[in-house]
Amino acid sequence: MVDSTQQGRAESLRSMHSGGILVLPNAWDAGSAAAIAAAGARAIATTSGGVAWSVGRTDGHGMSRQEMVDQIRWIADAVDVPVTADIEGGYGPTPGDVADTVEAAIAAGAVGVNIEDSRAPGGPLFDLPEQADRVSAARDGATRAGLPGLVINIRTDVFLFGIGEPDGRLADVIERAEAYAQAGADCLFVPGLTDLATLATLTKSVPLPVNVMAGPGAPTVAEFEAAGVRRVSLGTAVSQAAYAVAQRAAIEALTKGTYDELDGGLDYGTLNGYFTR
Hints:
- By secondary structure, the protein is of the alpha/beta class.
- It has one domain (about 5-235): Alpha-Beta Barrel (TIM Barrel).
- It is built from eleven helices and eight strands.
- It has an eight-stranded parallel beta sheet with strand order 1-8-7-6-5-4-3-2.
- β6 (about 185-190), α8 and β7 (about 210-215) form a beta-alpha-beta unit.
- The longest helix is centred in the last third of the chain and has 19 residues, at about 235-255.
C-alpha cells in the first residue's frame, strides 16, 4: 500500500528534474545504496547489471521479476531518499507484463522506474507504437498501484546499440521521445550518447528532460548541464569498480600476501551504522 511517505518521495523525485541536474551514482544492493545516500545523493537509482550480478544472474533480463523486486525492497528499506528502479524491459514483451512489473516495483518501495525500448541486449527495438503502448501500460499500472505520480524514465537504445544509420539516429530519438511523452513518460534516457553538441540539439528538441549515462572519459556533470541535460546516471560503473577492488584485493593477497588494495575502505563501524537491523 502506498503511504504518504512514498507519495512524498515520488513528488520529490519529480521535482528534481525541473531545474539543475540530478546525479545518480547507481546502486545494486542495500549496502551500496546506503553508502551512496550517505555521500549526499538526493535519490538512489538501481542498475540492472549490478543487481543481476549481485544475485548471480546476467544483465539483460537474466534475472526474474521477483529477484529484481526483492532487491528494490531491500534498497528502499535501507535509505530515506527516493528510489528509482531499473526494471529493464519490464520482464515480458506485453504491455500487461510491464504494468505488472511496475505495480510490483511500487509495492517494493520504488517511486520511479527505468523502462528500456530494446527487445534484447543489442536490439532490435520495439516498434514505436508498441513501445508507446508499453509506456502507457506502465502509467496505468502506477495508477492502479496508488502512485499515479510515479516518475517514468523511458530509455531508448538507439545510440547505445547503434540502431539505424548514424545520420538518422537523432531524428529517431526525437520521434520516439515525442511518442513516449504522449504515452506518459516523464524523462528520456539516452545511454550511448555523450556528444555535447548532439545533446544540446536533443535537449532543445524533445518535450522531456534528458538523462545520459556517464563514466570515465565522458564529459563532466557541469558540461552535461550546460548542454541542457537534467539527469546523469553512472549505470553499472560503480558496481564494476567495486568488483574490481574485490578482484584486485584477492589477487594481491593470494599472490603477494599483502593487503594494500584494502586501504581506504569504509570504516566497519560507519558501514554497520547505516543499518538499524
